[in-house]
Specification:
Blueprint lengths: L1 H14 L26 E4 L4 E2 L1 E8 L23 E3 L4 E6 L12 E8 L2 E5 L7 E2 L5 E12 L3 E12 L1
Parallel strand pairs: 4-10
Antiparallel strand pairs: 1-2, 1-5, 3-10, 5-8, 6-7, 6-9, 9-10
Length: about 160
């Protein structure tokens, strides 16, 4: 009797499995937003020296409202980087790596911030796209927000600092 129950159990268990064709694999198209693409490098410098900049944060999203990066003093992100000494009145120029093989777009809008403690103050670019170093001696931290509105949407936030002598 035990053998019959055992055989019936095996038949019952194995009859629940059936061979059916696997459903076709649907491949999802990989978009820019699915990739690990980082924003282009930001180069900043004066006529005399290059400045170290750091990518603090970035966001890519088809819904640009989802990319509201916080404008923070980048001092902590700049720890350990050499801070360039500049002269009062020097002009800082900003350039993005324009290599054509990069998939990341070039920004449509750029905003520069200086900091007094943690308070961010938007500063104005010169008509030629440069920024004139302040006259006040000491360390000055800056935040640089790049915004992208074209086929690829997002924001990138960079930080850099100078010491005015």
């Amino acid at each position: 009797m035990k053998k019959i129950v055992f055989l019936i159990s095996i038949l019952f268990i194995t009859s629940g499995c059936s061979e059916r064709p696997l459903s076709p694999v649907i491949e999802k198209e990989v978009t820019f937003y699915d990739s690990p693409e980082r924003p282009r490098e930001l180069s900043a410098g004066t006529e005399e020296a290059g400045l170290s900049s750091v990518l603090v944060d970035y966001c890519w999203n088809e819904d640009l409202a989802m990319c509201e990066l916080e404008i923070i003093n980048p001092a902590k992100s700049l720890e350990g980087l050499r801070t360039q000494v500049v002269e009062r009145g020097d002009k800082i120029r900003f350039l993005f790596d324009a290599s054509p093989e990069l998939k990341a777009p070039l920004p449509a809008k750029e905003t520069l911030y200086s900091f007094e403690g943690d308070a961010a103050l938007e500063v104005t670019f010169n008509p030629d796209g440069t920024y004139t170093v302040p006259d006040e001696k000491g360390r000055h931290n800056f935040g640089y927000l790049a915004e992208y509105y074209g086929d690829i949407k997002g924001q990138a936030y960079y930080g850099f600092a100078v010491i005015v002598k």
